[in-house]
Amino acid sequence: MDMSNIPLEYDKIIIGIDPGTNNMGLGILGFCNNRVDVLAMDVLKLNKLNNQPLKLKKIFETVLRNIDAYHPDELAVESPFYGKNIQSMLKLGRAQGVAIAAALHRDIPVFEYSPRKIKQSITGKGGSSKEQVAAMLYNILNISGTPDNMDITDALAVALCHHYQGKGTTSGEQKSYSSWKAFISDNPNRITRK
């Protein structure tokens, strides 16, 4: 990709990764002052590959290609969560590890966030649904339309969550809110009215 398409005025560029071995979400955000731009968002579909090592190779190559194209400052990745299927968790962990390895291969710092932390950062509630996160994210990032793939919006949410870290309390921890009213009061720039 030609870097001349990417404005040089960004203070920071963050790649967000929602790891998966069937679908991997990727979102790249550029930040300048109080402005945030979506530089890229995509989903890597891996379900046609039935060989696990080939899927991991494709993840590594895709993350590396995007790092080389966008020159991010940091990579943020969603951590796998333990469900009922240990095999799924192992596969997610491998996908996450390969994305992390691609970033480390280019000396890009890596940050990991739990799904609950990501949801809390975007909506103010750690128990929000994926649809609620996507709707809030589309509002914050001024993306028109409706989310067509939750893996993409999850990846954008990881990148934005990472950006928000350190913007709350002096310790870098996100503040907890007891109501939407309190969240909106403390975060007026995250709400747009139409």
How does this model look, in words?
This protein has a single domain (9-190), classed as 2-Layer Sandwich (Nucleotidyltransferase, domain 5), CATH 3.30.420. Helices cover 42% and strands 19% of the residues. It has helices spanning 52-70, 86-105, 115-123, 130-140, 150-164, 180-186; strands at residues 12-18, 23-32, 35-45, 74-78, 110-113. It has a 5-stranded mixed β-sheet. Helix 1 packs parallel to helix 2 (86-105) and helix 3 (115-123) packs across helix 5. The termini are far apart. The relative contact order is 0.17.
Kindly list the characteristics that best describe this protein.
alpha/beta; 42% helix; five-stranded mixed beta sheet; 6 helices; 194 residues; Nucleotidyltransferase, domain 5; single chain
Q: Which blocks of ≥5 consecutive residues have pLDDT under 50?
A: 167-174
Indicate the structural class: alpha/beta
Estimate the strand proportion: 15-25%
**CATH architecture level-2 label:** 2-Layer Sandwich
Average pLDDT number: 83
The total strand number stands at 5
Anisotropy-based shape: globular
- Order of helical and strand elements: EEEHEHEHHHH
Instruction: Please outline the major beta sheet.
Output: 5 strands, mixed
Number of helices: 6
Computed over alpha carbons, the radius of gyration is 16 Å
CATH class category label: Alpha Beta
Oligomer: single chain
The total tally of domains equals 1
CATH topology: Nucleotidyltransferase, domain 5
Report how far the terminal alpha carbons are from each other: 35 Å
CATH superfamily: Ribonuclease H-like superfamily/Ribonuclease H
Helix fraction by DSSP (H/I, runs of at least 4): 40-55%
User: In order across it, which strands form the biggest sheet?
Assistant: 3-2-1-4-5
